[in-house]
Inverse folding.
């Protein structure tokens, strides 16, 4: 199983960024994929997850209304569209995947993780 994140970088407050998570080695539609982030000096926070087959999504309060998770099932890619970003969104962003039956933003639920991509929001 391999998850590879991309799309991180430097963005100004109020701007947008789209992260990608390319997934391989699994039957994509059987899995739920989630995005987590870890800010400097803080714990890892689950922010969004999606059932890959049906597209139902769940968000943390900190990002709901600003971030959107989606999939490209033909390419086995999961996206995180980040809009109206804030300095507090600065973090390393990770994608994770596993077979789960209820939406979950708990990191203990997911066994498969990517290496992360850095996002820095300048004020």
């Amino acid at each position: 199983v391999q998850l590879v994140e991309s799309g991180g970088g430097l963005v100004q407050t109020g701007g947008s960024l789209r992260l990608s998570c390319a997934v391989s080695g699994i039957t994509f539609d059987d899995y739920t994929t989630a995005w987590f982030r870890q800010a400097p000096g803080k714990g890892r926070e689950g922010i969004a997850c999606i059932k890959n087959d049906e597209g139902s999504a769940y968000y943390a309060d900190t990002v709901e209304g600003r971030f959107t998770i989606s999939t490209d099932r033909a390419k086995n890619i999961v996206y995180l569209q980040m809009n109206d970003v804030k300095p507090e969104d600065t973090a390393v962003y990770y994608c994770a995947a596993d077979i789960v039956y209820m939406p979950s933003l708990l990191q203990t639920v997911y066994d498969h993780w990517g290496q992360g991509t850095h996002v820095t929001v300048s004020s």
About this structure: The chain has no helices and eleven strands.
